[in-house]
Amino acid sequence: MSGDAGRIRLYLADIRPLYDPVLARRVYGRLDDARQRKADLCRKPAARAASMAAGFLARYALEENGYGGYPIRYEAGGRPVAEADGREIFLSLSHSGDYAVCALSGRPVGVDLQKRQPVKAGVLRHFYPPKRAALFLERYETGASGVLEGEALDYFLREWTVKESYMKMTGQGMKLGFSEILADMEKRTASLENGEGRTAVFREYRAPDGYFLSACTEVWN
After folding, report:
1. Letter string b/e over residues 153-171, b meaning 16 or more CB atoms within 10 A of that residue's CB
2. 193 and 119 belong to one structural domain
3. Which end of the chain has fewer CB atoms at under 10 Å, N or C?
4. Mean pLDDT in residue range 37-49
5. Which of 107, 140, 163 is the last residue of a domain?
6. What Gene Ontology cellular-component terms does the record carry (predicted)?
């Protein structure tokens, strides 16, 4: 991977086969202790299947890229990292609806998957600074019930995946607020609104129907 450290490799899986208890036990047995504990905390079958699928994809991604023998450690913010021969291999996990996804890169990376579902317009005040929220509402109309619909919903969810993937890339996760992040959908970059911190480039990927998928990686000077 030394020649293309910034390249992002994505692995996506349908979680529904893990509703089968026999297969679920097999996959559970291949997870590391930290991921098993995470799965054990999930009360709902769908959440447990998603957690196991994401953990399995992380191990699969490492094996596919020649790092199968290296353990995964979890940083304070929950970001998974594998150390291979003195180098760090960065991973990021996400799941939504019926799918889980893992991103792998030689640079800090974040990935997010979102299922298309209704979003109340009131969320905008937490998602954007006030001026950007006002601009969004000028550009897009909301339904009579105050719910984002059609093009407005699609744009919002696209931007959501970019912002959340940026949060994961930094290793801070939800310690960063959505309104603190600027996603430039034309320039394909993400950064902090205050101009501090690292700038990331992002890419949107083809996802199953009704889903949105983006991944961010750091820009290195």
Report:
1. bebbbbbbbbbbbbbbbbb
2. yes
3. C
4. 95
5. 107
6. cytosol
**Pick from 20, 56, 51, 57: which is nearest to 38 by CA?**
51
Instruction: Looking at the structure, tell me whether residues 66 and 143 fall in a common domain.
Output: no
Range of the domain at 214: 114-218
What is the pLDDT, as a whole number, of residue 174? 79
Cα 176 from Cα 120, distance rounded (Å): 21
User: What does DSSP assign to residue 67?
Assistant: -
At 193, list the tokens.
């609104």
Residue that terminates a domain, selected from 62, 86, 107: 107
pLDDT band at 198 (very low <50, low <70, confident <90, very high): confident
Tokens of 138: 């000028």
Report the C-alpha gap between 95 and 105 in whole angstroms: 18
Instruction: Give how many domains the chain has, as a whole number.
Output: 2
Query: Exposed/middle/buried for 95, CB within 10 Å: 0-12, 13-18, 19+?
Result: buried
What is the phi/psi pair of residue 127, to 5°?
Answer: -90, -30
212, β-bridge pairs: 114
Q: Angle CA(192)–CA(196)–CA(202) in degrees, nearest 5?
A: 45
Same domain, 76 and 120: no
State the pTM of this model: 0.92
In this prediction, residue 1 has a pLDDT band, given cuts at 50, 70 and 90, of low
